[in-house]
Automatic annotation (TrEMBL):
<comment type="similarity">
    <text>Belongs to the nitroreductase family.</text>
</comment>
<dbReference type="InterPro" id="IPR033878">
    <property type="entry name" value="NfsB-like"/>
</dbReference>
<feature type="domain" description="Nitroreductase">
    <location>
        <begin position="10"/>
        <end position="186"/>
    </location>
</feature>
<protein>
    <submittedName>
        <fullName>NAD(P)H-dependent oxidoreductase</fullName>
    </submittedName>
</protein>
<keyword id="KW-0285">Flavoprotein</keyword>
<dbReference type="InterPro" id="IPR029479">
    <property type="entry name" value="Nitroreductase"/>
</dbReference>
<dbReference type="InterPro" id="IPR000415">
    <property type="entry name" value="Nitroreductase-like"/>
</dbReference>
<keyword id="KW-0560">Oxidoreductase</keyword>
<dbReference type="Pfam" id="PF00881">
    <property type="entry name" value="Nitroreductase"/>
</dbReference>
<dbReference type="GO" id="GO:0016491">
    <property type="term" value="F:oxidoreductase activity"/>
</dbReference>
<keyword id="KW-0288">FMN</keyword>
<keyword id="KW-0521">NADP</keyword>
Amino acid sequence: MSTVIEHRTWRYATKKFDATKKVSDEDLETLIEATRLSASSYGLQPYHILVISNQETKEQLKPASWNQSQITDASHIIVFANATDFGEELVDDYVANVSQTRNIPEEGLRGYADFMKSKLIDLPLETKDSWTAKQAYIAFGNLMQAAAELKIDTCPMEGFESEKYNEILGLEDKNLNAAVVLAIGYRSEKDETQHYAKVRKSTEELFTLI
């Protein structure tokens, strides 16, 4: 079995974390960098990611997470918050970053910047919100798989109240919305879920090769 498949077979949605085990600073830095390097449409990364280890904050979030134990028992809670709206500054900031990183005059990037703005700026607010959330999910998936490579357990979570997360974490004032949450840490020996066979559609049912 290839390492790629091994990591994905090993990973499962951890239901019970061992609250005594914490992800090391070194591994956390690796996960953060792996997530930073994730792909996004146009490279714009229209989201912000909160890495929460503070136990008091996790306790505050638990009632807004259907009282799921993963929130308080996991080593860290990663909240992916998408930008609910944006203007030209999203593109302008990106172009400035490209210019600095690649030592290219911004003038030479103006055509590409104008193209991005023509496709994005006038989108309806609901469409913008949906698009930025999709971008956040790309980074979310990358983090989950990077964690599996480090044998760090995860639980992807959509079972939470975004409005209350936004209030607790002060996201609304920053034009952000909690889109999806990933609990990371190490599985408890008492988590029976780890012994379940992974259930997925067959290759024949899921794929069409053309």
